[in-house]
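User: Quick sanity check before I run a bigger batch. Here is a single chain. Can you write out its predicted 3D structure?
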Amino acid sequence: MRISAWHKSQGDDVEWWWSDLIHYDIVYMSKIFSDAYSPDVAEPLNADVIIKGGTGYNIQNENGREVFNTHTHTQLPDYMERMFPDYSIYPQFTFAVSMTSRGCPRGCAFCHVKAKEGMISHKVADVSDFWNGQNEIQVLDPNITACREKRDLFNQYAETGAMIDFNQGLDIRLLNDADIADLNRMRLKTIHFAWDNPKDDLLGKFQEFAYSFRRKKNIATVYVLTNFNSTMEENLFRISSLHQLGYDPYVMIYDKPNAPQEIRHLQRWCNSKWIFKSCPRFEDYLKTENIDTNNYSLFDAE
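Assistant: Done. Predicted structure follows.
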């Protein structure tokens, strides 16, 4: 949207690429995920310049750590980064998209943010740089709760009066009383948290937030990472504990193409809410579906 806004400000015509029968001066290609999840589309050859960007192109693994690929590392220049987004290229959506801080101090091995944005959460924009009166704002900040300027940013979001959706996750380990008070002032569509590492004892933090937050049912969606240094017992403990406190657990699978079938069944059971509500025990779900559990760790442990 910023690329489109800048080119239009220069008098250029902008459209979605749809055919290599048309000659273009510049074609931009972007993707979030690697080839394992997002195989490249056929390159539009009928263009003078092709520019690729996004973590799907820019991040590579070197000796177990993620770094920028120096051959494909492309970021928007400052004069584009500062443009107000051209929302007209997505006429089917009516919400604003906001990125007011970047970076995260966690440095999780399964996450791109450390390599992409660094381990210090810092303010990069004001809400007004993305919002011009839309009724809903999708907040994409990776860890706004770790940002030193979060008090200012939370106040800006509250003052819009718009419906706020923190869809990238708030860090429950860093929430304090002032943060919760600010959240209670906002019109909130959805809050997202994460309980990625079962070795982190976060049950008390989730209990504290459930007690202090104004919403007592469907409090927040909590991402539960699986297939990454966790046992099935640890997966089920997180899911069950969150559900009992009024949260909506949502299973995420690391390296899903290579995940065991047991984890895939766990995801379907938990994330299909009509199944989860009617069959709250994973073991009962497996029996109901007549799933062979001979090689499942849950039953091996018994």
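The two ends are 54 Å apart (CA to CA).

User: Great, the batch can go ahead then.
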